Records
---
Amino acid sequence: MVRSDLAGSTQPRSPGKMTTTMEQVKTKSVEPHTRFALPEVNWDELNEPGAYVERGSGDLYRVPKEAIIPGGSPIIHKESIGSSRLVQVSKNPFVTTLEARLRCAQHNIDPNF
């Protein structure tokens, strides 16, 4: 009789004798190994396309490269009494909403999208 275990190896088995193969399982932590800060800018300093989350409101802004062409007409108009900070959660303005929310969670930003 031949016994096959989960790891895919086979071992001969003698009648009346039970053999067990134990395999060590190594687990990886779900926590990131290195922490890094996401770039944070004011509206006036916005000069790179990407997906940005406003720190105060948690709103997501997708800024394509066409929106920041020098001398071009700005696509985003925002008026506010207070200043707001934008955190760049991705260099890709079309990042999935799920991934953007995940990055917010990793950096303690409360998303509102």
---
Amino acid sequence: MKIKFLGTSSAEAIPREDCSCLQCQSADKRDKRLRSAILVNKQILVDAGPDISKELRPSQIEALEIVLITHDHQDHIGGIKDLLRLRRDLRIVRLHPGQHFKLLGVDIYAFKVNHSNVIPTVGVELGNVVYLPDTADLDNAKKYLKESKVAILDGSVLGRNFGGHLAINEIIGETREMKNLKKIYFIHNGHTHKTYKEMQKLVQSMGDNRYNVAFDGLEIEV
């Protein structure tokens, strides 16, 4: 299974407007982040934020079979209308906890996570990969994390939990002993004021070399 990280920022793209921090002023292209979405095997899109028409070329949109939505926050659904203008026949599926189906050879299971008191949110198990971009805890995800090889997890905040997001350091503390996880990637990366290189060094020092900060355009094969 091939996964491309189309966007890796949290609710707002990075760099932030009028911000002079090192992260926003960085010349490293890995510090330029659009709203989070992943593309699986070139045909399954997970989440479609306001930047999706920038993240996908027209030929890639034509190749899509389906769009899966984890929850209805604007940074995850804000680009759906743009996609439908280009592909009126495109199938959009809002995932719900307990949904389990096989799609284009990929076994998909949606499970409930705690993120918003108002908007239901799911994590997604895609084959042996767990995709969990927004979560306030890992309570409902641990079962799936313990049986997967790769995890793509919430990188929104550092140091303390905030706004329905579990802090990166807390996530590392809870997953460090899950040796079945061969790689852990942080997506939905927030405005930490730290560059990609600084964050990459930090997450590996808090965890080990399995931990990585994803960046726009990163491609992995599982």
---
Amino acid sequence: MLSESQLAALEKAKADKEAHGEFESECPGYCGAQDTFYVGTLKGVGRIYQQTFLDTYTKVAFAKLYDRKTPLVAADLLNDRVIPFFDEQQIPLCRVLTDRGPEFGKRGTKYIGWGERPSRPNVVSGGDR
């Protein structure tokens, strides 16, 4: 049993999380986060970027390395690794949260067949894949 001070601390922590834009994922596939990271430069190859996707409920992650940072590359990770995995598990992937970088704009959503919902941060709805 929790004391009143412990309950108050839990309520305060919950309110602090909500104030900072954090949310609770309801189930696997409810929301995934995708981002691009600059890894570095390889001699003879050039710049290397990592595309990363994380399911916010299960913390299952996918990553691939690329030599460019484009909408096509961002969609490739979803089409090649993420969507087939969720389809195999029979789990619908409902949303993808991004930082609205140029590789995640409206042009990127056409490569995965999803429409964009105009909101901040960028949320791509996958209801009718």
---
Amino acid sequence: MQSCRDDGSDTDIALNEPHLTLRDGTQVLIRRLVADDAALYPDFLSDVTAKDLRLRFFGPMREVSHELLDKLIHYDPARAMAFIAVDEQSRKMLGVVRLHDDTGGESAEFAVLVCSRLKSHGVGWLLMKHMIEFSRHKNLKTVRGQVLSENTTMLAMCAELGFHIADDPDEPGVKTVTLPSPTAHVGLR
């Protein structure tokens, strides 16, 4: 990753746009999601299976509604951030990670979605690492997410990234993954 100033400004890391390489050699740009990226979503979502949408949104979903898409694209950067992975050659969106601050601003919840054909290629790993780095620069005390128990690939990735995994006491079949004080740098694979 390119270096960024460490003056407490999360704008620095949000504007940092690393050029990275997937395991298969695909050149990827990780950058902040902007409103114009709405045009990339239909093609991206056509590469996400119904099963993967269910794993992400915790319910059956054949397609993402215009209302939900609008909510995903338009967010308040003071309380949320989203990064996308873009194939540098085709300019197609390959995945997205979102981070929403809690009311107190000391912790945040993440969610990630990767096009199905590229699962296990490193897209999710790169997006999660970028989100963790962003949360570190934002001085968040914890980053957490909810993962369906059957989503073993996501749970394994979270464990590799240092997340603590526990049963969600309020939702059977759901695990809560928590990364306390993500201040230590997470190295690249």
